[in-house]
Every structure is written in C-alpha cells, then in structure tokens.
Amino acid sequence: MGNVMRMRWGREDRKSQTGTLVALTVAVVVALGTQGCGQGSTTPPASAPAPPPKAATKLPARDAGKGTQKVVYRYDPANKPDPFRPFILLQKKAETAISPLQKYDLGQITLKAVVWGMEQPRAMVEDPTGKGYVIQIGTDIGKNSGKVIKIDDRQVLVRETYVDYTGRETTKDVALKILASDGEEG
To answer: Which residues of the chain are under the pLDDT cut of 50?
Structure first.
C-alpha cells in the first residue's frame, strides 16, 4: 500500500473545536432568545414616518379595579436648551485682520504707562514677547473681543463680550493696572 497519511487529533485541537462549538451554541441561543420573547423590534419600521412632536401633556388613565388615576408624561423638547450644545459658543469672526493685541488674553498683557488728564488719554501696554503698544479709548484688545472703555491715572478698563450657552451676549469689565517695580499693584 502506498503512503497512507493518518490524521490524529491532539488535545489542543479538540479543545479549540469544543470552544468554538460552545461559542456558536451560545450565540444561537441568544439570538433565538431575543427573537422568541414576543416583543417585537424596538425600532419602528423604516417606511413609517416619525410622528410630529407633541406638547408635554398629562393624560389621565383609569384603573379598572381601583378607580385611581395614572399620570402619563410626554416630553416636549420645544423651547428647551440643547443638552449637547457647548456652554460657551465660539463666535465666528469675520475675515478681518486682527491686531497683535487681539492674539493674547488680557491676563498676558501688562499696563506699563498711562498719559491721562487730557482730552484723549492714552496708555502703553506690553505683550508677553516684550513689545509695547500705545492704546486709547476704543482700541480692540484681548482674545474675547475686548474694547478699551476708560483710561484712568493707574488703570485701563476693558470691556469683554462673551456668548453664553443660551446664545445671549454677556459683558465683563476687566481692569488692567500698573504694577510697581517690585511686582505689586501701585
């Protein structure tokens, strides 16, 4: 007789076949179990149009035996904030050239000098790189659409505008103060 090849199944091969068979059996049982519960699919058929949203109403329903009422609540998302919308909305800025002072946060800009007591007071500020700029009332400054509204003898008042989560604009006044040579406000 010729070369007869005999196949011999080792323990490892039997274990892998048994594991595969058990996994397949479990998958079939789970699939049949979910279909055989008597509950149909939780998703509506694709051809059925979605019903329009209804107002939040409480509908009384009578219990046949006790005479008590059950209250059914339906959620109406109209006039409610979107829970997935960020609290601080980024404003889309127009394609205008921004000044170098609008690239920095107000906390990064230091007030160095003030010339006041005249019709149009001016101040000198310094950015984090050490470059100085002369500003006056109405100058745009800071990342958050800040505008200089007042220049006093030792401070510059800047009004910043934010958009909150409801879409309303909110303003905040920030004071830039001259620091003394030892780093304290003077």
So the answer is: 1
What CATH fold (topology level) applies to the domain 100-177? SH3 type barrels. (2.30.30)
Q: Map residue 127 onto helix, strand or coil.
A: coil
Gap between the Cα atoms of 112 and 142, Å rounded: 16
Angle, CA of 77, 46 and 36, to the nearest 5°: 100
Q: Which DSSP symbol is given to 6?
A: P
- As a whole number of angstroms, the distance between CA 98 and CA 105 comes to 14
Q: What phi and psi values does residue 60 have, to the nearest 5 degrees? A: -75, 140
Cβ–Cβ < 8 Å for 186, 179: yes
CB-based contact 141:148 (threshold 8 Å):
yes
Burial class (CB in 10 A: 0-12, 13-18, 19+), 112: middle
Tell me what percent of the residues of the chain surpass a pLDDT of 90. Answer: 24
pLDDT in tens, 19-65: 787 888 888 877 777 665 555 555 555 555 566 655 555 555 555 55
